[in-house]
Amino acid sequence: MTPLYYVISVILVGFHNVLGSFLDPDGGLAWVLSIVGLTLVIRAALIPLFVKQIKSSRNMQLIQPKVKELQKKYGHDRERLAQETMKLYKDSGTNPFASCLPILLQMPIFFALFRLIDQAAKNKTHGILTDERARSFGEAELFGKIPISDTFLNANGHVGVMVLAAFLVVAMTATTFLTQRQLMSKNMPADALSGPYAQQQKMLLYVLPVVFAVGGIAFPIGVLFYWTTSNLWTMGQQFYVIRNNPAPGTPAFTAKEERDRAKAVRKGGAAVAEVAEAAPEPTTERRPAARQQPKKQTREQRRSSGGQRPARGKTEGGKQK
Q1: Do the beta carbons of residue 105 and residue 46 sit within 8 Å?
Q2: Positive or negative CA dihedral for 223, 229, 232, 237?
Q3: DSSP secondary structure string for all residues of 247-273
Q4: What is the tens place of the pLDDT at every residue in 54-69?
Q5: What is the spatial distance between Cα 201 and Cα 196, in angstroms, rounded to a whole number?
Q6: Is the Cβ–Cβ distance between 56 and 170 less than 8 Å?
Q7: CB atoms within 10 A of CB 188
Q8: d(CA 25, CA 19)
Q9: Is the dihedral of CA 117, 119, 123, 125 positive or negative?
Q10: Cα separation of 32 and 226, whole Å?
Q11: Which DSSP letter does residue 98 get?
């Protein structure tokens, strides 16, 4: 754990140096915000693993119909079923354990932070924490009376500690449940809602919040801030991925198609309006009427109107003059 102590303490002290320039460096707010900053840095570093987790989860959902076919075909032979299932995972590039990687990698960081706070409360140093910083960290209090190193279990009747710790435990539990629920209700196709994978997801949906709730009462308030912030990041990150890049055949995918169609309609209407605005307005000027040629009159019409030309006289010999 020694390398982790150094990494975590460097990030923590870096944020504290910045925040301590305009906040009370010995106050709980500066240290809690430093823990929040540490959480954001850790989660940003885990984004590539999160992307891998999303791809693996999506592949697991998409291959569920094939998994069911294998179960029907080799249900009587568990060994052959396991071999064919692993072959299917390999061919589709799916790692069934990839969804656990972000949590597994965060656990050492979580326990390292737990150890830092616990030891700082006992005036013991780890990483780059000096004696003075360890004392400041271990004795930091929120609202002037709630030590961030206290837990719900060792509150010793301190109402403020118990209320804040209980609130953070509930927030941590609720965000864990909502994140998993969001995944199952919006980004899982109907075929994936039954079978072993779905049962595993349903189990995690209810088991993980209970585990965090039971264990949370033994975590220092500072560690609860870390875990709650991490859960909020996960929930927001997953919401973004589900909304913008949902798995095919899921309710989220249908919702995205509807949004895209509505957006296309709005863009089309705006384009028509722009063309109409750019078109020249019709002029109301009256143009002179086209000149009409007079109709040719017949001989009878000319006679009746007196317009017949007089006949030429004849000269002697029958010739006309």
Answers
A1: yes
A2: negative
A3: PTTSHHHHHHHHHHHHHHHHHHHHHHH
A4: 777 777 777 777 877 8
A5: 9
A6: no
A7: 23
A8: 7
A9: negative
A10: 9
A11: G
Tokens at 289, concatenated: 């009427």
Query: Residue 165 burial by CB count (10 A; 0-12/13-18/19+): exposed, middle or buried?
Result: buried
Q: Which residues pair with 142 in a beta bridge?
A: 146
Q: Is the dihedral of CA 32, 35, 39, 40 positive or negative?
A: positive
Q: What span, in angstroms and rounded, lies between the C-alpha atoms of 99 and 59?
A: 11
Task: Tell me if 91 sits within 8 A of 98, measured CB to CB.
Answer: no
- Name residues whose C-beta falls within 8 Å of residue 158's C-beta, 6 or more positions apart in sequence: 146, 150
* Predicted model pTM: 0.72
* CA dihedral sign of residues 228, 230, 233, 237: negative
* CA dist list (Å): 175 to 98, 168, 178, 236: 21, 10, 5, 10
Contacts of 249 (CB under 8 A, 6+ apart): 189, 190, 191
Query: Under 8 Å CB-to-CB from 131, ≥6 apart: which residues?
Result: 123, 125
Which amino acid is it at 206?
Y
Alpha-carbon gap, residue 134 to 140, rounded angstroms: 10
Model pLDDT for residues 133-162, shown as the tens digit of each residue: 888 888 888 887 888 988 888 877 788 889
Q: Would you give the distance in Å from CA 192 to the centre of its chain? A: 21
